[in-house]
Amino acid sequence: MSLLSVVVPAYNEQDIIEKTASVISEILIAENIDFEILFVNDGSRDTTWKKIQQSAERNPRVRGICFSRNFGKESAILAGLSESKGDCCAVIDCDLQQPPEIMVQMYRLWEQGYKVVNGVKASRGKESAMHRLAAKAFYSVMSAIVKIDMTKASDYKLLDREVVEALLQMPERNYFFRALSEWVGYRSTSVEYEVAEREYGTSKWSTRALIKYAVTNITSFSSLPLNFITVLGVLVFLIAVVFGVIALVQYFCGTAVEGFTTVILLLLLIGSIIMISLGIIGYYISKIYEEIKQRPKFLIAARTDTDTKQPKEKE
Ligand code: UDP
Ligand code: MG
What we know:
Blueprint: E1 3-10, H1 17-30, E2 34-41, H2 48-58, E3 62-67, H3 73-83, E4 88-91, H4 102-111, E5 116-121, H5 129-146, E6 153-160, H6 161-168, H7 177-183, E7 188-193, H8 207-221, H9 224-253, H10 260-292, E8 300-303
Parallel strand pairs: 1-2, 1-4, 2-3, 5-7
Antiparallel strand pairs: 3-8, 4-6, 5-6
Helix pairs in contact: 5-8, 9-10
């Protein structure tokens, strides 16, 4: 029988670990699917790791790994995938906002030969208007870059071992799971689901974290912003030619002094464009720097199976 690994990234999710483990277990046992649940504690500051350990003690199908600090959700997913043993791996959020029943449907599709089964949001659930707008902008940019509609994409997916291995081979540090699992290709299909409301705790994303996430992911997938600089440069050059001609004409007509405002305006315009451009180039250089350091994407401090020492916890 084939084994399904369920990867669950968890960051400050102490109140729901136990419930998530039991809900997923019940559903998969009822469907007669062999599975393991792999919690990845992404450097939580609460008792999440303790809850994962307790859950692993009670339920032999539950395993857990613990990061040395918070490395972010993408790294947590990657760590879970690299530790998984299953013939296929599902990735699901810890907060049960993504209905676990859908996983059964995904698994059946995998049995039919699909290598990637994407969970697709039927709607985005409850969120603020600002958030909705920002998300829309981000996903339309991403969709244009990846050339796949990503507006309804989520991290809720089921992947075949082959795809998991392909993803694990990606050397890049800025890892965007949602887009990379599309990028690898393979035979894929999708399943729609309704986003449930969060029962416990709050969303783990601050506005700042979301903006950083958007910028990082766009730049890790596209060098378009760099080309944008060239376009800007050409534009400014054209404007400069027009103003240059005007200035020369004025000079020869003997009415040159007036142009002072234009000079100031041009100076400001060109100055700001140079600064923006330098900023964009600098950002890419910083990304290259990050990649070239070849630092590990995450560090595992403890595991439930070969547990040695426990990280310090603040209660
Ligand atoms: N998460 C994580 N590391 C982080 C932030 C979030 O592992 O730094 C996990 C979190 O525990 C949850 C999932 O990622 O299982 C989705 O987070 P959340 O529900 O806060 O995001 P939202 O549903 O609001 O998009
Ligand atoms: Mg959530």
